[in-house]
Amino acid sequence: MNFKERFNATMHYQPVDRVPLMDFGFWNETIPEWEAQGLPAELAKWGGGNRWDITKWMGMDGGWNTYGPVGMMPAMETQVIEETAEYVVYRDSTGVLLKESRTSRSIPLYLDWLLKDRATWEEHFKWRFDPDMPERRKAIAETIEAVDRDGKGSDPLCLNIGSRYGWIRNFMGAENVSLLLYDDPALFEEMVATIGDCIYAVCRRILEGGAKFDFAGGWEDMCYNAGPLISPTHFKQYLVPQYQRICDLCRSHGIDVIWTDCDGKIDDLIPLWLGAGLNCMFPLEIGTWGADPIKYRRQYGKELLIIGGFDKHILAQGPRQIEAEIVRLKPLVDEGGYIPLCDHRVPPDVSLANYLHYVREAKEIWCANRNVGPTPNVA
């Protein structure tokens, strides 16, 4: 079986030679650390991202390809506001003002957001979600051509179904969007509807243009370590109708594996996503709250598909802990409907030796070494 066949069989509880072996990716900072530990220099030229070239070097499968120009178009120009030897202040492609250190590893400091109210929404954002603009129509046509070409390959293809809440939170900040739900709920509803209409129109045109996908996936990141950033009541009121119609569209075109990418404690939202038609959770962050893919499968049954759920912190601990977690997850792997991978990008505190040990043991325990490539050795 190739990767595409393996992916589809696993996600539909069908016979399969082995579970797909892949990963979320690696933090930018991880790559130079690994180069110093033996990662070939040609694989370390460009850091971060999904880096399927690295996983293939490790004898794993590659990764999926995602298609669909559903986001803000055109993106805003990045503007450097202030620059010193210690930091740079800039406005990014979504209008967010950031201060980024040049001397330490840290997420940027968020200084300001361009989206503040109805006036800034209409001036800077709303028109960028017009599904009929010439640039987007051109991108849709190019997407259909790309999917037709790439569909002949062995990698799974994903239809991009975008974000509703997550993008708005990015545009205006978590605190501001939380207040907006009470101060101006009509504006929040309009923003969700505008973005949702754009996503639906783009996906419909791509699908009606004959593009074939293995699954559909979106992104939200609407939870933190104590639960959702939006109440389940508001979630049901504003977001569930949007999820339902995009899921109905996907299923009408034969796409029945539909996931959302959401970090944090998602427990309160899982049943709402399932009810709306989103049936796969990714990357199932374990976190301090102790999420567990085995527990969720027991709770929701085979209706719930899972991609992820291997605690990234275990990878930094040592061979014994890594092996124990691989063994613990094996019954779920054997059941199907589950692709184990790191619950976020692999951080730099995970040594290359530890990660290769994880890959080697996963091949043996999850895959019985069937149809896997060799695992490289590093000094």
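Next protein, fold it too.
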Amino acid sequence: MASGDSANACKRLQKELMTLMMSQDEGISAFPDVDNILNWKATIQGTEGTPYEGLAYELSLVFPSNYPCAPPTVKFITPCFHPNVDVYGSICLDILQDKWSAVYDVRTTLLSLRSLLGEPNNDSPLNSLAASMWKKQDENFRKQVLKQHAEGNTQNADPNR
């Protein structure tokens, strides 16, 4: 891991931050950690007309030193009941794995994740219960989404955590 790679990643992320701040995209935001531009916190809003409508989800993005040649590691911090999200917040999304390309950036990654909330890929679920409920259009799916989201907000509000 050459320091040149890390410097290039930092420059690229600074540009991406400016692009994101200038964009008019609704429902997404992200900012780097004050001490490390390779670590970001992001927020995506659930899209209208989906079980996630009205909910905000916090995510962590950790960029490798060879970014954008390799994808960031993205995880949900806020618990998310979703076919493509496991209990640890890991996400199954092709552009974060084998379909990654250097043309993707923070903005397109967040827009893709926001889209994934309303359009899961049930062919490769990480959460089989959520996948089954989604496929059956189970009326309790939204209740489970709200329950898990509320549990996360309770944990985040706990000062002893």
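About the second fold: The chain has one domain: 4-154.
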